[in-house]
Amino acid sequence: MAAPIIILGHRNPDNDAISAAIGYAWLKNEVEARTVADPAKREVYVPARLGPLPPETAGVLAKWGIEAPMVVNNLYARVSDVMTENPYSVTTGATLLDVARLLRKHNVRALVVVNEDGTYKGVVSMRMIAERYVAATELVGEGHSHMAVAADLIASLDQRVDEILESDVLLVEPEARLDEATIDMMNSPLREAVVVDDDSIPVGIITRSDVAVHPHRKVILVDHNETRQAAAGIEDAEVVEIIDHHRIADVSTVKPIKFLNLPVGSSATIVTLEAQRLGIEPPKHIAAVLLSAIMTDTIILKSPTATAIDKQVVDYLAGILEVDPTEYGIEIFAYRGGDADMPIDKLVSADSKEFAYGDGMVLIAQHETTNLESVMAREPEIREYLRQRVAERGYACALLMLTDIIAEGSQFICEGDRRIVNRAFGINCTGQGGVWMPGVLSRKKQVATRLLEA
To answer: Theoretical Cys-Cys bridge with 291: which of 26, 75, 317, 405, CB 3.0 to 4.6 Å?
Structure first.
C-alpha cells in the first residue's frame, strides 16, 4: 500500500488550520470509500499539524472523541518511506545452513540476526557466506588437500551465526531523514542498514538500491500556500492539492494540481462547500469541528473577512448539529480559558505569522479575548516577550493585536520599529498603552495587507 497523503496546515496552527485538515481528510477518505471498491487500492489521507492544539480545538476534539492529528516536524522523505518492513530474521542459535536455506527461499541478500527477546544483534548476508567459501580456497594453495577443504566447508554449515555475523552495521530509526541516512549508508562498508524502533526491535531493512530513487512525501496544504508558513522540507515534498482562503503566495508545484482558493472567512468553509458539491453530508462530529473553525476564524461572523457564503455554511453546519450558531461560537471561545493565567508565550505566539517586509520580516500576532482589561494588565510582560522575539528572530517589528470580540476592535501593542505600524495606520503606537483600533478584527484583511502595502 502506498504511503498516506498528509493533510497539513501552517506553522503555529490555529483552529482553522487543524480543523480544516481533519475535515478534508474525512472528505477525501469518504470519496475514496465511495469510488474505489478495493480497500487495498484506495489512497489514505491523514490529517496532521505543525504544533500544539489550540485550546478550542482540544476542547472540541475531546467533546466528540476525535483523535488529535499527528504532529509532523518536517516533510523530508523518511527511512520508513523506502525500507522493507518486517525483514526476514534468524536467532543467534541458527546455523549457517539455516541461513543459506532462508536466503534462497526468500530470494534476499541478507538476514537480520536477533536475540531471543527479538532485539537486534547483527546481520548475516549472502556476501559473508560467499567470502567464507572463497577464503577456503586459499587453503588449497597452502597445501591442504581438496578433500580436507571440502570437509572443512561442510563442517562450517553447522556453525552458529552469532560466531560470524556482522555487528558493525548502520542502525537507523524509521523517522530518520532519508537524505541523511543515505549519506551515512554510502560511507558504510556494508550495503545494508537495519531500521530499529525505540526498543531496538528490527522493523525494516534498507539497501543501497532502495535509496537510489528518492521518494517524495505527498501533502495537501490547507489554510496556507506560503513556504514561510509551511513545514520544513516543503521543497522536498510533492504538493498534490491546496485548500486556502489567503493570498496566493510562493508554493510551487511540478505539475498542475487542484487549488481551491476562495475569498471566504475560513478554510473550513471551503471544505464544507466541497463536501456539498460532492453531495456528501458531514456527520455530526465533523460538522462540529468545521463549524468551530469558521466561528473562530471569523470571530463569530463579526470579522470583515466573513462573507455571505460563510453565513450560509454556518447555518448549514449548525442545522446538522441542531445548535444556535452564535451560542456555539461563544462556547468554542470559552475553551480558551482565562487570559490572566495563560502562559505568556501562548498568549502572544499561539496565533502568530511571519510576513516578508522589504529585506526583512515582521511578526503579526493576534489574541482574541472577551476580557481585554485582564490582558492589558499584563502589558509589561507582553512587551518584554515581544522585545525578546524581535531580538531573537531579527524582526523589523512585532505587532500584537488584542482583539476584543465583544467590543469589536483590537488593541495594538508593538515593539521593534514602531514607525512601520504608525506609518501604515496613521497612528502613534507608543511604548505604553498601545492604540485602540475600533472595528479592526482581521489580521489578514485589515492589518497584514495594509502593513505590507504601506
So the answer is: 317
Per-residue burial over 74-88, b = 16 or more CB atoms within 10 Å of its CB, e = otherwise: bbbbbbbbbbeeebe
E runs forming strands in 115-237:
120-125, 170-172, 192-196, 202-207, 218-222
How far is residue 368's CA from residue 366's CA, in Å, rounded to a whole number? 7
Specify whether the CB–CB gap between 386 and 367 falls below 8 A. Answer: no
Q: Put residue 268 in one of left, alpha, beta given phi > 0 → left and psi -120 to 50 → alpha.
A: alpha
Q: Please, are residues 41 and 264 in contact by the beta-carbon 8 Å criterion?
A: no
Q: Are the C-beta atoms of residues 370 and 333 closer than 8 Å to each other?
A: yes
Give the SS3 label for residue 8.
Answer: strand
Alpha carbon distance 415, 429 (integer Å) = 9
Which residues, 6+ apart, have CB-to-CB distance to 203 below 8 Å?
83, 85, 86, 174, 195, 196, 197
- Cβ atoms of 434 and 414 within 8 Å: the answer is yes
Chain position carrying cell 556453525: 159
Cell digits of residue 319: 442545522
Q: DSSP per residue over 174-205, as a string?
A: TTSBHHHHHHHHHTSSSSEEEEE-TTS-EEEE
Q: What is the largest CA-CA distance in the chain?
A: 100
As to burial, measured by CB atoms within 10 angstroms (0-12 exposed, 13-18 middle, 19+ buried), residue 370 is middle
Per-residue tens of pLDDT for the chain, all 454 residues? 578 999 999 999 999 999 999 999 999 999 999 999 999 999 999 999 999 999 999 999 999 999 999 999 899 999 998 999 999 999 999 998 898 899 989 998 889 999 999 999 999 988 877 777 777 677 666 666 777 777 777 777 788 888 888 888 999 999 999 999 999 988 888 888 999 999 999 999 998 888 887 889 999 999 999 999 999 999 999 999 999 999 999 999 999 999 999 999 999 999 999 999 999 999 999 999 999 999 999 999 999 999 999 999 999 999 999 999 999 999 999 898 888 888 999 899 988 999 988 888 999 999 999 889 999 999 999 999 999 999 999 999 999 999 998 899 999 999 999 999 999 999 998 878 899 999 999 998 899 989 888 6
- CA distance linking residue 357 with residue 423, whole number of Å: 14
Among candidate residues 394, 387, 437, 375, the one with its CA nearest the CA of residue 412: 437
Count CB atoms within 10 A of the CB of residue 323: 16
Alpha carbons 424 and 355: distance in angstroms, whole number: 15
- Closest-CA residue to 357 (of 393, 332, 315, 384): 393
